[in-house]
């Protein structure tokens, strides 16, 4: 099978924590020949005092020192990231560096660059601990979801069991885009894929192995709202056209208790699925929807998993 190239963006700072997603990539992709990765580093913006037209000799000296230290910090961070990537089996010619001055938020810079580079995913470690002093310090989840409307985001919390992925397909169009993304990104891997719809109307789980639906599944789908039926048909079509082997796929309809986020994480724990793929969207706009969204709850509660978010 000929693998399609896949491109990633990895925002980094001066910490080892920012490099954690690299481990996940090396686990997921045994063959890394068709993967390219852009390392993105932000340098501090120039203090306004140094931007003035007329500087004293002392200020000129301080400005030169500031710029020198800034450049050295960027070189060290990028060199360390490159070293880790090379040690992890990535070839030097597919590693790219992009250094820019920080003028906006980390999320805004990363998502803007992701759109320009047309990457397949932006890699981000789960919320960095408060002790970190780099630019990735703090929780950028909401800002990333706000700005990354085109490029999917992969939130990673190592170690991750890559043996199974759960793709949640619902009545929302974003969930179908999430499935399309997962089928593409998981080609050439050994990860098994559960395409799951959670429903209050179910009292027991329905499972159809492989690419084809089952009679029981078809009867259940026929009784669902129009949006669910349409997305299920789209999902079957995508699966049929994908290069994922039939033995790695199964269609699942699972009951839920009304707490969808908790039910998704519980299902993942039961199936030992380390990858969760979500479609994020809402009629009230990104910020309003975030207040109570399934996505936000999962991103707050997931542990030792990779959560892929598509919008």
TrEMBL record:
SUPFAM superfamilies: Adenine nucleotide alpha hydrolases-like. InterPro entries: Rossmann-like_a/b/a_fold, UspA. It comes from the Bacteria. It holds the Pfam family Usp. Residues 6-149, 164-300 form the UspA domain. Belongs to the universal stress protein A family. This is Universal stress protein family protein. It comes from Desulfosoma caldarium.
């Amino acid at each position: 099978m000929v693998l399609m190239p896949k491109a990633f963006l990895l925002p980094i700072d001066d910490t080892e924590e920012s490099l954690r997603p690299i481990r996940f990539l090396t686990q997921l992709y045994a063959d890394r020949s068709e993967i390219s990765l852009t390392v993105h580093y932000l340098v501090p913006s120039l203090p306004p005092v140094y931007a003035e037209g007329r500087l004293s000799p002392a200020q000129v000296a301080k400005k030169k020192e500031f710029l020198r230290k800034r450049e050295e910090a960027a070189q060290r961070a990028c060199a360390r990231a490159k070293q880790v990537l090379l040690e992890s089996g990535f070839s030097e010619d597919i590693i790219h560096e992009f250094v820019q001055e920080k003028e906006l938020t980390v999320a805004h810079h990363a998502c803007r660059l992701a759109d320009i580079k047309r990457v397949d995913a932006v890699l981000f470690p789960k919320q960095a601990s408060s002790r970190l002093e780099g630019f990735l310090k703090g929780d950028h989840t909401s800002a990333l979801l706000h700005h990354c409307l085109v490029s999917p985001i992969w939130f990673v919390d190592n170690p991750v069991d890559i043996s199974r992925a759960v793709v949640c397909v619902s009545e929302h169009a974003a969930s179908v885009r999430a499935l399309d993304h997962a089928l593409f990104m998981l080609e050439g891997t050994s990860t098994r894929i559960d395409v799951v719809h959670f429903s209050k109307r179910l009292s027991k789980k329905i499972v159809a192995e492989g690419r084809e639906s089952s009679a029981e599944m078809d009867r259940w789908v026929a009784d669902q709202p129009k949006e669910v039926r349409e997305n299920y048909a789209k999902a079957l079509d995508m699966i049929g056209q994908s290069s994922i082997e039939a033995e790695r796929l199964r269609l699942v309809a699972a009951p839920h208790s009304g707490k969808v986020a908790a039910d998704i994480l519980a299902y993942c724990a039961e199936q030992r699925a380390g990858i969760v793929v979500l479609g994020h969207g809402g009629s009230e706009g990104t910020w309003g929807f975030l207040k109570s969204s399934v996505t936000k709850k999962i991103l707050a509660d997931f542990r030792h998993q990779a959560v892929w978010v598509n919008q």
